[in-house]
Amino acid sequence: MAFGIKRQELICWKNRVANNQISFLTHYWMDPRFPGCYTVTKAGCRDLNKLAEWGKKYGLKPEWIDRNNAFPHFDLFGDRQKEILQMEGQWEQLHRFHLS
Predict the structure, then answer these.
(1) What distances in angstroms separate CA 73 from CA 42, 90, 98, 100, one per listed residue?
(2) Domain of life of the organism in this record (predicted)?
(3) 32-87: pLDDT as tens digits
(4) Residue 37 in contact with residue 29, Cβ under 8 Å?
(5) What CA–CA distance (Å, rounded) separates 4 from 6?
(6) How far apart are CA 84 and CA 70, in angstroms?
(7) How many helices (DSSP H) and strands (DSSP E) are in the chain?
C-alpha cells in the first residue's frame, strides 16, 4: 500500500519514465515482508537497457527490475535507498520522507 504522494507527483513520474528518463518517486509504504522499512523509492525508466545500466553503478542487478507493469522500476528501500537518493541529489525526497 502506497501513501504520502500527490496524484500530480505520480503523473509526473509516469511521464518521465514513459519518456525514457531515470525518475524517482518516494512514498510511504507498508509491506510485512520488509519490517522496519516505511518508505520505498521507485527508480524507473521505460528503456530497460538504460535502467539496467543505471542500476549497475549502484550494484543493482537487472533481474531486480520490476517489469510487471508499463513503468519498469527498481524498488529501493532501507540504507540502499538513502544512499542512492543522496548520490542522485534527490534532497527534497530525502528531507520530505525523513531519510536524511
Answers:
(1) 6, 17, 22, 23
(2) Bacteria
(3) 888 888 999 999 999 999 999 999 999 999 999 999 889 999 999 999 999 999 99
(4) yes
(5) 7
(6) 23
(7) 4, 4
